[in-house]
Amino acid sequence: MHAVSYTAQWMAAARAQESEREDALYVDPLARELAEPKGFELIERYEGGGLLPFITIRTRFLDDAIRDLLADHAIHQVVLIAAGMDTRAFRLDWPDDVDVYEVDHGPLIEEKRRRLDALGAKPAVRRHEVSADLTQEWLPTLEEAGFDPSRPTLWVAEALTFFLTEEQVAGLLRLLASASAPGSHLAFDILGRALLRSPFSKPFLDKLAADGTPWIFGTDEPEPFLQANGWDVVDLKEPGQPGAGEGRWPYDVQPRGRRHANRLWLIRARLAGA
Predict the structure, then answer these.
(1) Are 254 and 237 within 8 A, CB to CB?
(2) Of 4, 238, 264, 273, which is the most exposed, with the fewest CB atoms less than 10 Å away?
(3) How many CB atoms lie within 10 A of CB 234?
(4) pLDDT tens for each residue of 89-116
(5) How many other β-carbons are positioned within 10 Å of the β-carbon of residue 17?
(6) What is the rounded CA–CA span in Å between residue 227 and residue 269?
(7) Residue 259: pLDDT over 90
């Protein structure tokens, strides 16, 4: 499988380990099977990068964002971009009138389907697989699967922006805005720029680069970056803050005004001007 697909298995392995804790922030009963063959090996390889607690906190943050934003029944379609081995369509409680679109490249979609079918897994929502190359024009393929750009959308992009250039992230945000009706929202995560230059992070980042999945983009000013590309931040958190894994983050949360601090941003945003 492609290197980024191995990253999807790594995320699944992290979710499996969290699910087996007594104090788990969520339970993903399918994750262990979806993590093979490389996921747990990658956890060992990248041990020391401090990422496992972040994966757990990010997963719960995005779970909560989905629940909260669907609670008032104003949004009826959710798009998981680069969905990987995500199983939210199976493990979350969904309103009856929601469609979930999982977008990723074809071979990963097919492998995931094979594994889920073997497990007898049944989605808890109307689930649509969308095989698309995210480096090419993919919105028409999404619309062919039933997506309606005239209806409000919740876009979820988990662990995606790290691997893109700044221009690609900006382009993605503008693309999503262009396909969003008023009332649309976005939930995702971004690295802080300082983290990409941190001596603490360097051994971990060097391993990612050697494995062909380098982390590229980060920003220390997420609000103006999103606003310049069509989105207004409505909730910005760092791991360890209330509502973002308070009590489970092993590091001190740095004051926002402290320059050059290592940061990981968890973000909810709404379509600008809507």
Answers:
(1) no
(2) 273
(3) 11
(4) 999 999 999 999 999 999 999 999 999 9
(5) 19
(6) 9
(7) no
